[in-house]
Amino acid sequence: MTGATLSHLDAAGHATMVDVSAKAPSLREAVAKGRITMRRTTLDMILSGAAPKGDVLATARIAGIMAAKKTSDLIPLCHPLALSSVKVDLDPMAGDASGIEITARVRTTGPTGVEMEALTAVCVAGLTLYDMCKAVDRDMEIGEICLHHKSGGASGLYERTTPPSR
């Protein structure tokens, strides 16, 4: 890959999928986070298992995993990847905040990274939480979605050092 430029534009300036065939496969990992804020009563309903649509957390976790596996179907020009691991954690926010922090950790051994898969997993898990609870709380907000960690590949390690902007 020495001297090659990775770009979504071809020589004529048209959008194209980046050719990663010359890149060496390596272990790659990405962690993305986001959150959904909601009324305290909504969070209590979810945590008690009393949501009208069933186990909200289990459904959102599965939706996030499935979304990571289908990222190339959702994001134009994104490479289809064989993912070796997808983990989605849904944790009640601490302190006075009322909501759930969503964390997705995605791994693959391949020629390109999994940042988009981790970010997609967080987005879809948040949307699933919203969908399953919107009948009782339409004021929920999904936000602060960002990459927190990326490792592997030629660009090396990335660790987020700044909080999400508000």
Which key features would you list for this structure?
alpha+beta, five-stranded antiparallel sheet, elongated, 166 residues, 4 helices, 28% helix, single chain, Alpha-Beta Plaits
Descriptive overview:
The protein has 166 residues and is α+β, with helices and mostly antiparallel strands. The protein has one domain: Molybdopterin cofactor biosynthesis C (MoaC) domain (Alpha-Beta Plaits), CATH 3.30.70. 28% of the residues lie in helices and 28% in strands. The protein has four helices and five strands; from the N terminus they run βαααββαββ. A five-stranded antiparallel sheet has the order 2-3-1-4-5. Strand 2 and strand 3 form a beta hairpin. Helix 2 runs antiparallel to helix 4. The longest helix is centred in the C-terminal third of the chain and has 19 residues. The radius of gyration is 18 Å and the shape is elongated. It starts with 25 loop residues before the first strand and ends in a 7-residue tail after the last strand. The mean pLDDT is 90. Pathway: Cofactor biosynthesis; molybdopterin biosynthesis. GO terms for molecular function: cyclic pyranopterin monophosphate synthase activity.
Number of domains: 1
Tell me how many strands there are: 5
Low-confidence stretches: none
Give the termini distance in whole angstroms: 38 Å
The helix/strand order is EHHHEEHEE
Summed over residues and divided by their number, the pLDDT gives a mean of 90
Structural class: alpha+beta
Q: Name the strands of the widest sheet in spatial order.
A: 2-3-1-4-5
- What's the gyration radius in Å? 18 Å
Q: Percent range for helical residues?
A: 25-40%
Shape: elongated
Largest sheet: 5 strands, antiparallel
User: CATH topology, anyone?
Assistant: Alpha-Beta Plaits
- Specify the CATH class: Alpha Beta
Total count of helical runs of at least 4 residues: 4
Let me know the CATH homologous superfamily.
Answer: Molybdopterin cofactor biosynthesis C (MoaC) domain
Q: In the CATH classification, which architecture applies?
A: 2-Layer Sandwich
Strand content: 25-35%
Pathway: Cofactor biosynthesis; molybdopterin biosynthesis
Binding site for substrate: 77-79, 116-117
Organism: Novacetimonas maltaceti
Active site: 131
